[in-house]
Structure formats: C-alpha cells, structure tokens
Amino acid sequence: MVDAVVIVNWLDKLQDSLAPYPGAYLGLMLSALVIAAFVANWVTKRILLRGLRRLIARLPGADSGRGSNVMRVIARLSNVVPSQVIASGITYVPDLPAGLVAFIVAACQAWAILTVSLAISHGLDAANDLYERRPDARNKPIKGYLQVAKIVIFAIAGLAIVATLAGVELRYLVTGLGAATAVLMLVFQDTILSLVASVQISGDGRIRLGDWIEMPSQNADGDVIDIALHTVTVQNWDKTITTIPTKKLVTESFKNWRGMQESGGRRIKRSLYLDQHSVGFMAPEVRTRIGHFALLGDYLKTKDEELAAWNAELRERGADEINSRRVTNLGTFRAYVDRYLRSHPGINTDMTLMVRQLEPTTEGLPLELYCFTRSTAWVEYEGVQSDIFDHLLAVLPAFGLRVFQSSSDAMLMTARDAAR
Question: Mean of the pLDDT values across residues 134-157?
Fold first, then answer.
C-alpha cells in the first residue's frame, strides 16, 4: 500500500514537472506502457517458454514430437500476457478519450479470447495425439469429434469477440442472432458451405498452394494456383485453367500428388509384353552370349552351382534326365532387369523395387517393372523411364526373347515392293 502511494505521488510530481510541455506526459506514459508490454512478452517468450521447452525435451518421447502440441498450447497462452498488460495499464494513462480507452480494453479482451480459443484447439490436438498412441485408436478414432468441438469453440469465441467489441452481453447477442439464423442460412447457403469447406481444407491441409491434384470429375489435373472462399483454381498441364467449387473438395474424391513429391520417389509401373512362344530353356549360344554381361556374373555362377547340385542328386537317385532343372531365358532376363534397375543411378533403391510376371493375356506375357525414380520432376521421371525401356527393348533379343506386337501389313508391303 505504501509502495502504491509512493508511485502515485511520484507520477503526480512527474506530471507537474512536464506540465509546461503539452503531450509530453501522455507520450511518456504511452511509451512506458508499450515498453512494459514488450518486456512482458520478452520475459514470457524468452525465459518461461525456453525453460518449459527444455523441460519437455527431457520427457520420454519428446524426440518423436509428442510434446510439440503441448508447447503450442503454452505459446498461445503466453500471447495473453502483453495484451493484459496493455488493458490494465491503458486505464492509468491520463487525457485519453473514454471511448478510445474502452475500445483498446475491448480489443485486448477480444485478443485474449481468440488466443485462448486457439490454445484450446491445440490442446485438443494434443489430446488426439495422446489418444492415437492407444492400440485401439485406429479402430475408434476421435478426430472427427474433436473437430466438431473445435467448430463449437470457435463459434462461441467468435460470438464472444463480437459481443466484447460491441459492448453488449453475449446472451443478448445470441438471442438476436437466433432469430436471423434461418434467413441467413437460406440467403448465404453457398457461402456458408464454402466457408466450412475452406476451414476444413486449411485445417487438415488436404490442399495447399502448389499442390498437384487430379480430379477427373471436374476435369482438373495440374497445380493449385489459388485457394479462395468459393473456388480453388487449378492450372492444368495443358495450361488451361479449371475452377473447382471449394465444397467439392470436401464432398468428392480427388488425388493429391503431394505425398509422392515429398516421399522422394515417383513410381514406375509398366510392363513389357513378351511373346510366350519365345520363352524356353536357354540355348548354349545364348548362354555364351549373355555370359559376358557383368550384371549377370554372380547370378549365373550361383545358378549354375545350384542346378549342378540339384541335378547331381537326381543322378545319384537314378532319376531320368528329363527331371533335371535348366536355366530359362525368361528367368535370366528377369534377374538381369532386377540388377539393371538396382544399378541405375536414376532409381531409388531404398523404396520398393521388384520385377514380376503378371497373368498371361492375349496380348502376351506381361513382365512388370515396379520401382521408384529418385527424381519426382515430371520431365526427369519420363526421361529415366524411357531410358530404361529403351535399353530393355534393345537387349531383349540377346536373351532369345521377343516382344509381343500385333501383326501389321508392313512386312507384306515390304515383300511386295521387293518383288516389283
């Protein structure tokens, strides 16, 4: 109490000494208030938050990001401190209009309401992270319920902010809005749906600027260049522009290629269709020819030892020679393709890589290549894919194999031209 009296007396003396200078005392008090708010913010952010961050970092599981949402809650709540310093100190600044003081106090209170709402939202995210660590969380997710809770919290916060700035009680504002809600929803139905969709899109991050999305129902296949309230604009690869209603991105399915771009690899899934009549046991001349392939050195050596041991056991048992195992040209070619892909500098060997046979069709025997390129850029991806199949088509005859291709009259026309 004594300290407060001393401070008041000191301020009165300071005001009397600055009386010959109009506005000097007011400017000094406002400057002091701003500095006090800055100091409060600095102390909160630099000291308290830093100490809490170090404390949380020592907790088990902090390295996996489990404490990030908790820190976001605390960081949001810390923003209340400077606003409350201003709201408390502005009332002691003399010569300010009463209306201006009331507006500043109301604005600080509105800021506090918004900050607390955001902190509660992050707290719900932290609760969801904690829940998802349970073994049965995947079967019983609560994320949808928490999103509904967020909508309710932000709706209440919005009404409270409007009531605070307007200087009315919240219950009167809610009563007044209740009568007009039906009319507003009817008139602004599309806007409300678009607003809800925009909030959901920005909240879960399903669409961001620069994303490559594919939505056949809207004829969209390209990069997102603008996200507005009512529409999302996509520049297609043919440089045309498609505008998609925002609510369509919530109610209809689409493909976002961001995951591929962030994964560091783009998938190649394409087949060589082989003529099944060319598949057979490897002829001696073919075995001699491909024996010079560096990629097949270890494979052929291991395969020869394996088959020699198997066939020797058959002979010891007196089995007929027809039961012996032999190397096929298709199996050797499949091993060659696998080794070729693993040695290719454009292929990401840390991701799934396999060469497999699919079910034979009337178009031939599909030999599918399933792998990922290191680059996700479209031009580089197509270049790597084309180089691989150029090489495989060129090397295929060395294994005694042929690609399947529907017959044409090209050979017939060539024969006719030669006869003429």
Answer: 76
What does the pLDDT look like over 75-91, one tens digit per residue?
Answer: 777 777 777 777 777 77
Q: Which residues contact 66 (CB under 8 A, 6 or more apart)?
A: 59, 129
Stretch 201-217: mean pLDDT, rounded? 84
- Alpha helices by DSSP H, 43-169: 49-57, 68-78, 80-89, 98-132, 143-166
Distance from C-alpha of 254 to C-alpha of 217, rounded to nearest angstrom:
9
d(CA 305, CA 327): 12
Q: Find, among 178, 229, 223, 181, the residue nearest to 202 by Cα.
A: 229
Distant-in-sequence, close-in-space partners of 55: CB < 8 Å, separation ≥ 6: none
The position carrying tokens 């020592």 is 58
**What token pair was written down for 232?**
């999302």
Burial class (CB in 10 A: 0-12, 13-18, 19+), 35: exposed
Cα-based distances in Å from 377 to 129, 349, 409: 34, 18, 39
Question: Between the CA of residue 344 and those of 290, 293, 300, 394, what are the distances in Å?
Answer: 19, 15, 20, 16
Contact indicator for 400, 282 with CB cutoff of 8 Å? yes
CA atoms of 127 and 115, how far apart (whole Å): 18
Helix (H) or strand (E) holding 182: helix 170-187
Q: Containing H/E element for 266?
A: strand 266-274
If residue 220 lies in a helix (H) or strand (E), which one and from where to where? strand 220-227
For tokens 């600027």, the residue is: 209
Largest Cα–Cα separation, the chain: 124
What tokens were used for 342?
Answer: 């693993």
Q: Quote the pTM value.
A: 0.57
- The three-class DSSP label of residue 205 is coil
405: left (phi over 0), alpha (psi -120 to 50) or beta: beta
The DSSP symbol for 359 reads -
| Distance in angstroms (rounded) separating the CA atoms of residues 208 and 257 | 11
- Reference 201, options 247, 260, 236; nearest CA is 247
DSSP H helical ranges for 255-345: 258-263, 284-290, 297-316, 329-343
H or E element at residue 379 = helix 378-395
Higher pLDDT, residue 313 or 408: 313
Which amino acid, 243?
A: T
pLDDT tens track for 268-296: 999 999 999 999 888 888 888 887 888 88
